[in-house]
UniProtKB/TrEMBL annotation:
Listed PROSITE patterns: ABC_TRANSPORTER_1, ABC_TRANSPORTER_2
Keywords: ATP-binding, Cell membrane, Hydrolase, Ion transport, Membrane, Nucleotide-binding, Translocase, Transport, Zinc, Zinc transport
Entry's Gene Ontology molecular function annotations: ATP binding; ATP hydrolysis activity
EC number annotated for this UniProt entry: 3.6.3.-
Name of protein: Zinc import ATP-binding protein ZnuC
Chain ranges of the ABC transporter domain: 4-219
The keyword Nucleotide-binding belongs to this UniProt entry's keyword annotation: yes
Phylogenetic placement of the source organism: Bacteria, Pseudomonadati, Pseudomonadota, Alphaproteobacteria, Rhodobacterales
Gene assigned in the entry: znuC
Spans annotated as Disordered: 234-255
Xref: InterPro entries: AAA+_ATPase, ABC_transporter-like_ATP-bd, ABC_transporter-like_CS, Metal_Ion_Import_ABC, P-loop_NTPase
């Protein structure tokens, strides 16, 4: 049985129809990356799949007792809050020191155990968040743009670590990333979102699209290509029957 099976789910935020009739299944051990422009519903979909956001339509079935480890997009820490890495791992539930150390060692930051959380670099903090997410030996590791703010070598190292953890723990990985070119080698399946799913497949299939080559060409030009791709292709030919313009207008920012 699939770990998660979502059928035709809809999520609305007030007047915004953020997720429109989306079908997603997640199998044990696979790495799935969700890409799409800003505001295309990636985070909403991710959060709906783990039950953190209620759905307005459709069904989500999760394997019984599914253990999920979640790495948030950002963690806002008050710089005056005295909280060490070790104590942070005790939130919300106390964990034995050996278990905490093992998790920190797995993500390469055991030397930071006694450091203040507020004093960590972006890359160090992401690894601590990852350590916290694997404490309960998750069957699914969920990451929402985990490398935001990291430079490319640090991002690449982080995704290599994710892949190694998947191999070691046997968990599935579901993540949102803007950096498909970086996560690609570590991704089994890519889901292209724009409210609905625009296209889906192996990185090879997605990268074969001319729009993808444009997308990850250069800087903003590449990012704009994703926007064009979502709007120019024949939606019926790709099995898409939603109007992406209902989610994005030409003025919407893309990243
Ligand atoms: N709590 C909320 N209340 C109202 N609208 C929301 C809320 N969360 C998201 N939205 C809206 O729903 C749409 C989808 O947002 P979501 O954060 O899922 O997109 P995203 O693809 O993850 O964006 P980004 O790449 O910028 O993180 C956007 O139009 C957003 O403004």
């Amino acid at each position: 049985m699939s770990l998660i099976q979502a059928t035709h789910i809809d999520v609305r935020h007030g007047a915004t129809h953020a997720v429109q009739g989306v079908n997603v299944t997640l199998e044990a051990g696979e790495i799935v990356t969700i890409v799409g422009p800003n505001g295309s519903g990636k985070s909403t979909l991710l959060r709906a799949l783990i039950g953190a956001v209620p759905v307005d339509g459709g069904t989500i079935k999760a394997a019984e007792g599914l253990r999920v480890g979640y790495v948030p997009q950002k963690l806002h820490i008050d710089p005056t809050l005295p909280l060490t890495v070790r104590r942070f791992l005790n939130l919300p539930k106390r964990v034995p020191t050996a278990k905490a150390r093992e998790a920190l060692a797995r993500t390469g930051v055991d030397h930071l155990e006694k450091r203040q959380l507020a004093g960590l670099s972006g890359g160090q903090l992401q690894r601590v968040l990852l350590a916290r997410a694997i404490l309960n030996r998750p069957q699914v590791l969920v990451l929402d743009e985990p490398t935001q703010g990291l430079d490319q070598p640090a991002s690449a190292a982080f995704y290599r670590l994710i892949e190694a953890l998947r191999d070691e723990l046997g968990c599935a990985v579901l993540m949102v990333s803007h950096e498909l070119h970086v996560v690609m080698s570590a991704t089994d399946r890519v889901i292209c979102m724009n409210g609905h799913i625009c296209c889906e497949g192996t990185p090879e299939v997605v990268t074969a699209a001319p729009a993808y080559r444009e997308l990850f060409g250069t800087g903003t030009g590449g990012a704009l290509a994703l926007y064009r791709h979502e709007h120019n292709h024949d939606h019926h030919e790709h099995g898409c029957d939603h109007d992406p313009a209902s989610v994005l207008s030409a003025e919407d920012p893309v990243s």
